[in-house]
Structures are given as C-alpha cells and as structure tokens.
Amino acid sequence: MNYIGSKYSLLDFIHRTISDFTGYKSGDDYIFADLFAGTGVVGASYRKEGCKVISNDIQYYSYVINKYLIEGSENIDESLISSLDLLDDVDGFIFENYCAGSGSGRNYFTDSNGKKCDAIRIEIERLFNQNLISEEITRITDKRLGMKTQALDALYHEITWDYILVLVNNKHWIAVKHVKEDRFVCYDPNEGKDSDGSTMGKAIENLRKEYVISGLYICI
Asked: Are strands 172-180 and 164-168 parallel, antiparallel or unpaired?
C-alpha cells in the first residue's frame, strides 16, 4: 500500500543512515522498533533481513497491515486470493469516503479500486464471522510452533506432508501431521500439549476427547 507520506521512497536512505550510525548489517540479530509504522514498509524490510520488529502506530489501519507484515506467514492460500479477486465491486465505506466518484471530494483510491477494497473487506468479515478464517492462525504459525514441530520431527523421522491446521469445536486451530502410514502427531498451542495416534481423529482425541473437528485449513 502506498500513499502520500509513505516511507517507501526513503527505504534506501533509511537503511544507509541506520547502518552508518549503528554499524548494523543485514542479517544481524537486532530488534528494530518502527515507532510510526504507517504502512509498515520500513519494519517489513528489516523483518526480511532477520530482525525482530516492534511496530507501533495510533491508526487502526496500520495495526491491520502490520499484523500481517510483521507477524504473518509468507505462505498464502492462493485459492482464497483468487476468489477475492473475482468478487463484484461494491459501493461501500471506502468508495463513499475515499473515492472521487462518490462526490466525497477525496481521491485516495480510483473508483474501481475503492469498490474492490469494499467488496474484499466485506467478504473477509463474512469469512471471519463464520469461523472460516481466524487471527489465531498467526499464533499457530509463529516461531514457538516452529520450534515445537521441529522437536516433534526429531521424534518422527518419516514425514509424508507438512502440518495442516485443523479447526476444532469451531473455536481454535491445532496443527496435525502425518508422519508415517499409521502415525499422526498433533500440537495444540492453547494447551501447549502434543499427542499422537493411528489416525488424525485418534491423535486429536488423545489430545482432548472433547475436541470435534470442524474443518481443515492450510498446510504450513
């Protein structure tokens, strides 16, 4: 996302200046604080270089963008993106307030892009309300799960596919992996526990009998 005031065009200058003053080099294990994050282009560029990033901004739109740029996984469900791209345009909040065609006097977005933003935002809200997508996915795919699954992989050498996210009880996600023909292993970040079983259902049941599979989501 780009707009007047974005630091995108200043990235080279920012990186060069910070390196000159601190001695920082790409790949150094630094903590980078992006105090006025905006669209997150600066913090995201340092995340790609291996820094831990702390992002701050008073605007909610900035929180939403940086939630993905700083915490999100780079693995994207392309089928979901394709379906969002095919949505019909909607005259909604963005169009009415930020597009010239609405008579708002503003021209932040073209009319077509503003209507596309409205259509996608409304559809994402619908998916979220129906528990088809969840913010909890970011907590499952973070480094803590990565370390845990690496430890589990050390115990189960035969790996047939990556972890998939399983929605249980229409509430939260757990990670499940098929490690060999008759062995599945799963991990629940809510409980901090793992279990295994001869089937995916059995592994989840061994984790907690009350868990009922509500749906499957994505490989990680």
From this structure: antiparallel
